[in-house]
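Suppose a colleague, Dr. K., hands you the sequence of a protein chain of 284 amino acids and asks what its three-dimensional shape might be. Before reaching for any lab equipment, you can write down a predicted structure in token form. Begin with the sequence itself:
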Amino acid sequence: MFASDWVFSFKQAKKNIFGILICVFLFLAGFFIHGNTGLYMNLSGFLIIIGGTLGATFLSYNMRRIEILFKVLKTSYGRAIKSPNEIVSILVDLSVKKRIKGLLALQDDEDETAIAFLRQALGLLVDGFSKEQIRESLTSEMYFFKMRREETRRVLQTMADVAPSFGLVGSVVGLIGMLAGQGDSAIIMTTIPVALTSTLYGIVLANFFFLPFAANIRERTLQELFLQKIILEGVLAISEDLHPKMMERKLVSFLTPSERKGRFVSYEKIRQRLNLSEEVQENI
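The predicted structure, expressed as tokens, is then:
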């Protein structure tokens, strides 16, 4: 990841963390505003929910899938992705480079690019595969990428489904203890919090953590698939030796009107970066 990407990722993370902290503060304020915050803290109820939810998850999925889930969440919240107009700019620059220096000149970009899908696409292009073969290979990669992400998201969906159920289990456990302690106020006062807080914990975990995490993975996946579609069409245009200006027009159609302001092809920048003479630039 380049330095600019780290800076952008850090800024985005700061915004997310700041927003989450505000929401958590407002959420907890609803519990604390009337005092007696200890009423909402119950270790027995918490252990029932956590133990039951994790146990059901481990029985449903292997450890490898759960490890992948943590990696995906870490990437989703800790690493920014490039914007669509940045991808368009990169692809048009690559098109110009190919027209000036030839196809093999793209090998440097294949090694240096931080976008795995673009790196794979450039590898296919440099290796001389046909347009149909490139489309088939990259389309398959997109399909299985979506499937892998969906399987990972399904783990969180399962956790969100079972957490409230184990909240009911905790409530039943508390009610059984309460009925068994009829006539003993000490037992009743000990078991009632288990019955009530278990349901609370299950609902909070499902709706404040698991479902939002699953929605974030789905949103991130859709964004990355959109960028992969742009890369696919851009690399196919490069393989057809489409003129950079026509390629720009084609790829800009993926963007919203607000993202289309300005030109993506900066010939002056390309000339300086590739050490081109003005005569060569005019012939691009």
